[in-house]
Amino acid sequence: MYTRVNHYIAVILYFFVSIIIVRQPLIGNFGYEYAALFAVIASFVAGFYAIHDERRTSDIPPTVRMRNGLIVNLLYLLVPVIVVFIVALPELPCDPVEGLTFYALLTVISVIFSYVLGWLVSMLFRWARTVFVCFVILSFIFSILSTLLQPKIFFYNPFIGFFPGLSYDQLLPVTSTLVLYRGYTVFLAFLFVLFMSMLRFTPVRDVHFRDRIRLIRHAYANSYVSIFLTIGVILLFVQMLSRGALGFSTTYGQLESSLGSVFETRSFSIHYSSDSFNDNEIKWVAFEHEFQRHQAMRKLGVMHIGKTRSYLYPDPGMKRSLIGPATTNIAKPWSREIHINADTYQRSLLHELAHVVAGHFGMPVLRISNSTALIEGVAMATEGVWGNRTLHEHAAALLQFEVIRDPSVLLHSKNFAQQYSPVSYVLMGSFVQYLIDRYGIHRVRSAYAWSDYETAFDRPREQLAAEWTSFLRRINVSERQRLKTMIHFKRPSLFGLKCPRALARINRAALEHFRERDYIASNELFRRSWDMVPNGTALEGLIQTAFHLGEYEAVVDYFNDEKLQEEFPQIIPVLYRTTGDIYALQGDYQSAEEIYRRLLAIDFSDAVNELLRIRLLALETPDDADLRRLLYYERENQESILRSLAGQPIDDTMSIGLQWVITRYMHMTGDFERSAQYNRVLRDRLEDDFSKYLTAIRAGESLFYTGNFQEAKMEFWEALNYTNSPAAQHGIDEWIDRIEFASEFGSTIWETVPPWR
């Protein structure tokens, strides 16, 4: 049946493809990507070999030939496995069990399905290879169309098994749904075998089409196999009707039913779970949608877009099962919808709505750009800031400290995707912001759909990139920003990290144990992750679990290891804060203060700066037992302690640090009336500008949420007196815009009952 040449061709093909793939980032790791890629390649190989086997003249019965041919094609699959294991020597691949599981579910089953389908196609059609390729192409077209017409971004397909969609989620587990779908794929292949058995494996390809149909009908009427085939087809039809219930697909009706609640405004249908927002909270959510839509339309120069559907998911697990990505928020401009995690919706709402608004000037049908850099650059430019710096400030620092030497390379979609995502997003946001400021939004809109810079700007992309780079080099960047830049941006991308899927799974499990305060189990898992591949997430976890387990010397050793901090700068905020806490607990207040101030000088984020200011105040009042309990000791009962303290009147006898913690708690729990009052009192007791700025902002937000718009605006104007940060000023301007928008349009969203009543 097979000649040596046949074997040589297959083995050499698999060998050389394996050698090429194992050297590539991400897909070279023995896991999902490796298995999925070989599933597609092996589908064509198996299908073509099946056609060759079926048409080969032989005295061997066709059933035996098909069985032997299938076994041989499955044996070929050992080549990629052997190659990836040899390349990994003297160690094993990242997660051999998970890798082999994906390989079995995706690649092996794809070969079984494709070989059987190829044999069937060869029996029925003269141009069998063409028909087989058409089957493969049409199946992928159908799968891709399902992601465009349905809310999900994943798809199941018999030739690749499963495609998770384009997202930044690193966690990609083997699910029961995937196992069930591959069981269905094998069942479908079994039905093909039954059909061929009904025809007694007799080719009918040379028979006229009408006679071919007559022969099939005759065989169906005179074969007992037809009974089993009929039952199988009925089960197949039931499966097709139950794809949503089985998890193979998600319809809009199923999605909206799962979330359960809907809030309608003039511009949005907001679908959410009542577990996430009560009746008053959803009014604020609806207002924020309308306001951010207004902001995006104003910044992008769009006068009108149709009604948008917003889906807010109560937890990542539900989001993963319904649409694919668990933590990545997505927009679908072609259907004007956004999908966001409810607990973080405020951080990403403007970004995702910018994608939808930009669809107004995107390419036809899909309403996007053909350039990933422009898609994300426009959304980032709409936001204007990232963290507590503007896009231009970050971009200039990235260039100054050579985190990336030539930022213009990110204009190519491949380079954009392979870079650590915050680097790509921030730089392309800065690029688009430069184009808007220099040439106007109308030219950016003209270039957006097809990235046609030359027509829109009368100059090539390379020249525009050179102008932008020259602009960034003129921005003054102090040396003290180096460490902040490295902490934020010196991290590997999904493509640059070895074993990203396995590390994500182990680190996620470790974090779950950490949240449950099972620090021993968490430490063991973080240690396992670190031993597999040294990575910053695991190192942060090791530092925090060591602290909670009382292993202070280990934390101090990490602190004294400068090379470790240089290699993994992302650990510095956690490491400095934790080490400072250790010295504070041991009574060495001078060392603690020194470390806190070193971290404060980095200016990592407003949230970290606030926690450090509170700790510095705690060092000034070491006898404040309540404050020390909240900062250093009580982890399990922190909520009850804060609730009890918040119920007491705040006066001058209470330490400033404790008062700050309590007013912060009031704001976070929605006690806005008292939060506004106490933040004003607290501001008068604080001395430094940053602390006054924070309390003014918090008082302004609290007053806004109680409906006192004019007083809120006064607080935000007051906050301007305490900061010269462009990013902070940008945030204050946005809040003032929000207040004015609420004054003018709030009643149309809330109708007769505003959310503060």
Instruction: Give the strand order of the largest sheet, numbering strands 1, 2, ... along the chain.
Output: 3-4-5-7-6
Helical percent range? 55-70%
Strand content: under 5%
Low-confidence stretches: none
Mean pLDDT comes to 90
- By secondary-structure content and strand pairing, the structural class works out as mainly alpha
Quaternary organization? single chain
Largest sheet: 5 strands, mixed
Whole-Å distance between the termini?
82 Å
Q: Assign an overall shape.
A: globular
Number of strands: 9
Count of helix runs: 37
Integer-rounded radius of gyration: 30 Å
Structural features, described:
The chain is mainly α and 757 residues long. Helices cover 67% and strands 4% of the residues. It has a five-stranded mixed β-sheet with strand order 3-4-5-7-6. Strands 1-2 form a two-stranded antiparallel ribbon. The protein has a two-stranded antiparallel sheet with strand order 8-9. The longest helix is centred in the N-terminal third of the chain and has 29 residues, at 96-124.
Please sum up the structure shown.
With 757 residues, the chain is mostly helical. It contains 37 helices and 9 strands. It has a 5-stranded mixed sheet with strand order 3-4-5-7-6. Strands 1-2 form a two-stranded antiparallel ribbon. The protein has a two-stranded antiparallel sheet with strand order 8-9.
Topology readout:
Layout: H1 4-21, H2 32-55, H3 62-76, H4 78-88, H5 96-124, H6 128-149, E1 155-157, E2 161-163, H7 176-198, H8 209-221, H9 225-241, H10 243-246, H11 252-259, E3 261-264, E4 268-272, H12 279-300, E5 308-313, H13 316-323, E6 330-332, E7 337-341, H14 345-358, H15 372-383, E8 385-386, E9 389-390, H16 391-400, H17 413-418, H18 421-439, H19 441-448, H20 453-457, H21 461-473, H22 482-489, H23 500-515, H24 519-532, H25 536-548, H26 552-560, H27 562-567, H28 572-585, H29 589-602, H30 606-620, H31 625-633, H32 638-646, H33 656-668, H34 672-685, H35 689-705, H36 709-719, H37 726-750
Parallel strand pairs: 4-5, 5-7
Antiparallel strand pairs: 1-2, 3-4, 6-7, 8-9
Helix pairs in contact: 1-4, 2-3, 2-5, 2-6, 3-5, 5-6, 5-7, 7-9, 12-14, 12-37, 14-15, 15-18, 16-18, 18-19, 23-24, 23-25, 24-25, 25-26, 25-28, 26-28, 28-29, 28-30, 29-30, 30-33, 32-33, 33-34, 34-35, 35-36, 36-37
